[in-house]
Each structure stands twice: as C-alpha cells, then as structure tokens.
Amino acid sequence: MTTTPEELEPMLKAQRAAFMAARPEPLSVRRDRIERLVALMVDNADELCAAMSEDFGNRAWTQSMVTDIMATVNFAKYCLSNLKGWAKPEKRKVQFPLGALGGKAELRFEPKGVVGILSPWNFPVNLAFGPLAQVLAAGNRAMLKPSEFTPKTSEVMARLIAEKFRPDEVAVAAGGPDVAQAFSALPFDHLVFTGSTETGRKVMQAAADNLTPVTLELGGKSPVVIGRSADLTRAGERIVMGKMMNAGQICLAPDYLLVPADMEEGVIAALELAMMDQYPDLTENEDYATIITDDKAERLRDMVADAKAGGADVVEIAPGGTASADKRKLPLTIVRNPSDSLACMEEEIFGPVLPIKTYETLDEAIDYINSRDRPLGLYFFGSDNAEREQVLSRTISGGVTVNDVVFHVTAEDLPFGGVGSSGIGAYHGPEGFREFSHARSVFTQPKVDIAGLAGIKPPYGERARKTMKLMLRK
C-alpha cells in the first residue's frame, strides 16, 4: 500500500507523542523490539529472499541470505548483547576545585525521539533493518522509507513490520520520489540516508530546514591498491568476489584498481582465473545477480562505450559467453588505463565495470587517491607492512580492508561510515549507538557555595584576583 506525502506528518506526530508519553522506557522494552525484529527476519527469510530476487529479476537465495538476512540478524543480536553496556551512564572528571568540593559529572545516553530511515534498493533488507536495529537499541521510534526500485521487497517489509510493531513504534512509508522528498523534509530527531552522493546532498539540504541531524552513508570511488608484495592469485579471487557480488551494485565495491605497471598483465590474468572459478557460466548462472533496471544496465553499457570511444583498452571477461535472454546480466569489463575524463573515472560505477590504472611508484598511487574525493572504502593488497602503512597513513577514507575488499563493513564492532563526499556519521559499533543517542551532560553541584569561595560571585574583590592568578599559572 502506497503512502501519500500528506500521511507522513501525522505518522511522525503519532510516534513522537507515543515516545514522549512512554518516557522513561526500561531497556527491556528496547530488547523486546529488537527481538521482534530478529524474529521477523528469521521467520520470514525465504519470503524476503524471494521478494528480493523478484525485484532484481534474479538474485541468488544464498547471496540474499548472507548479505541481507544473516548479516542483519547477527548485527541485531550484537546490539542486544551490548545494549546494557552502551546505555550505562559514564562518569566524567570534574576540574579542580569543583571535584574536590563534591561536584559530580556524568554523561547519559538518551534516545533522541523519532528517527527516519531512507534505505536504498541494492541491499533492501540489510540497509533498512540494520540501522533500525541500532535505532531501536538507542530507544527511539522509527519511520522507514524503502526504495521504490524494490517494490515487492518493500511491500513484504511493510506487511511484516505492521504485524510485529505498532505504528507508533515502527512504521513504513512506501512510495516514489515524491514520498521520499516529503519524508526527508520531515522534522525528525535524526535522519539516516543510504544512497548516492548526489541524492545525499539533496537529503541534507531538506533536513537542514529543520536542523535535523543526519547520518549519510554514501558511496564514491573506492580504490584498490595492489602493492608489489601482493599475492596476485589471492587478490584476484577476492576482488572478483567483492566486485561481482550483487553484480557490483554495492556502495563499497572496488571501483578502480591501482596496479604497478609491470604487474598489470598478471593482475588481469588473476581476475580472469577468478572469474572462471567463481562464475564458469556467467550469464546463465543463477548465482549471478542482474542489474536492477533496464535503465541502469543501459547506463553501464554507455559507460563502456564511452571508454572505447575515449581510446581505452576494454577487456570483457565473460566465461561461457555473453549471450543471454536477460539483457541485464553484464560481464566483468576491464577498462585499461582510462583517462580521468571518462565516465567510468568520474562517476561511481555501481556495476561490473572495473578500470585499471598503472603506477610506477607507490607515491604516485597515493597522490592519485588523494587528488580525488575521499572514498567510502580503501583496499590494499600486499604482505609488506611498510608498504601497507605508507598507504594507510597517507590517505583518508571511510574505512579500510587489508588483503580483501568490502569486509570491514562486516566487523560489527567497528563503526561504518564515510568521510567527506562519501558520507557523514556512522553506525555499527558503540559509535552507532551514540550516533542515534543524545549525549546528555548532567552536572550535580555540591552544597558548598563554590562561586563564593572562589570569589567569582559579585561583588568581586581580592579573592577573585587570587583565584584568577591561581588558575592562570603556567
């Protein structure tokens, strides 16, 4: 059932009223909500996977189970196991002489209220229910706006949420761009958006009118640096797995490779070998996902055509051939030494196109990364610690995986987020709990008249001067 833009504000008002009326809620209420979310996913895993496959045209049950169901269930359980520790108030130090006279300070992590979650289509369950688990852990209510590109999955999610949660706890707003635009303009207490950098800018502009704090999980062009100490066979296997999963439709997918010039042929051979091993028959393979829409598949074809027209060497790796009734199944396409003016080097690819640029020195590769927008992920392959640290210490990215790609997002105790144009804020780990909480400072003053003792209560006199002199000692 589609939600109209006019229905959104009453939904928000109902949630906020329920939130305020229920304060303070015990942690047991938060646990119950997360447990219901876990049960929703576990009990309906097959239906959710079937819906995702229907929306994509083809998406392997195993992939959906791993990336959208199991990963999200495990993260929700992680939130459950850490909730008590996260929510515990922190004692903070009190400066002299306040502490010596009995002053006390603590930090309480309190729920913000109602959090909006704008989730994307590429991992429609994970990127809606993952943030939701931590939003609920922080004690908030939530409104979800799933993507219109996965209508079947959104429909199933909305029905299951309605079965497990009251609308004043968690609600789903289904609809197209008009609903998303109205949703991002609501006066939430916090707004989470996962999607493109371009759309993220629009979401942040809409949220700014209400001074709504935002968590923006965006994308960007995540580079892979192949060091001279890299095991090329292993690198090829892991790059292909990360690049071809979900047909490359991953915000963290390797977007381009930086390779020593004299190792380029070896890297391409390793990629070809890995493709033959993992996808021996590419286009008729049920394990390989399709591009989500005809328009997005055509965009990728145009990107390859642009590379060819721009003089780049294009290598198609398609075990079993490229003939397929499904025109949205695209092969891994290597673009060798592309110019920076090509679309594949200017835009986030979000598909199975992989540019390779060569370098002579590691400094050259690092300078190239640093000349571009800061990426969501950065990947280094190599066994030389000095080489690795040179890359890590001289670049900036949202996160890093060493000797693999994408995997840092699976480390539940690490915050996941971008930096600069690849995102603002983070969730996962204790940092995510704090992202969705208000850190409320509480200072308790002792009975002693501290201001009077220090001489800083009018009328000022000699005691005040002595206090200032004492405090300003070097």
How would you summarize the topology of this molecule?
Elements: H1 5-22, H2 27-43, H3 45-56, H4 61-87, E1 90-92, E2 104-111, E3 114-118, H5 126-137, E4 141-145, H6 151-164, E5 170-172, H7 177-184, E6 190-194, H8 197-208, E7 214-217, E8 223-226, H9 232-244, E9 256-260, H10 264-278, H11 294-309, E10 313-317, E11 332-336, H12 343-346, E12 353-359, H13 362-370, E13 377-381, H14 385-394, E14 399-402, E15 416-417, E16 423-424, E17 426-427, H15 429-435, E18 437-444, H16 450-454, H17 462-471
Helix pairs in contact: 2-4, 2-5, 3-4, 3-6, 4-5, 9-10
Q: What does this 3D model show about the protein?
A:
The structure is a single chain. With 474 residues, the protein is of the alpha/beta class. The chain has two domains: 228 residues, Aldehyde Dehydrogenase, Chain A, domain 1; 192 residues, Aldehyde Dehydrogenase, Chain A, domain 2, CATH 3.40.309.10. The chain is 44% helix and 17% strand. The protein contains 17 helices and 18 strands. The strands form four sheets. A seven-stranded mixed β-sheet has the order 10-11-12-9-8-13-14, sandwiched between helices. A six-stranded mixed β-sheet has the order 5-4-3-6-7-16, with helices on both faces. Helix 4 packs parallel to helix 5. The termini are far apart.
